[in-house]
């Protein structure tokens, strides 16, 4: 026959496992967000870096025209590279 102390002990273990499971799920979600963020920064690298630098300059009270111009230059270069027709033969030639 189950006593009151056995029942409360079982409930405590279940609650502890559920908290552990919730924390594990949270860690997995945070890790996935980090991986996606790294991928986005890698794919859109210099444009995003220049835009972030421009925002940081503006937030600190400085002029950010140079960073905004650099971001536009990077975006234009990315557009040009994206429009270039590539085949397997020339894939590694300008793959930076």
Specify the biggest β-sheet. none
Average per-residue pLDDT, rounded, comes to 76
The residue ranges in which pLDDT falls below 50 over 5 or more consecutive positions are none
Rg? 26 Å
User: What is the share of helical residues?
Assistant: over 70%
What structural category do the secondary elements indicate?
Answer: mainly alpha
Total E-strand runs: 0
- Strand % is under 5%
Principal-axis shape:
flat
**Total of DSSP H or I helical runs spanning 4+ residues:** 3
- End-to-end CA span: 71 Å
What series of H and E elements makes up the topology? HHH
Keywords: Membrane, Transmembrane, Transmembrane helix
Organism: Collimonas pratensis
Protein name: Pilus assembly protein
Walkthrough of the structure:
By secondary structure, the protein is mostly helical. Helices cover 77% and strands 0% of the residues. Helix 1 (4-43) packs across helix 2. The mean pLDDT is 76.
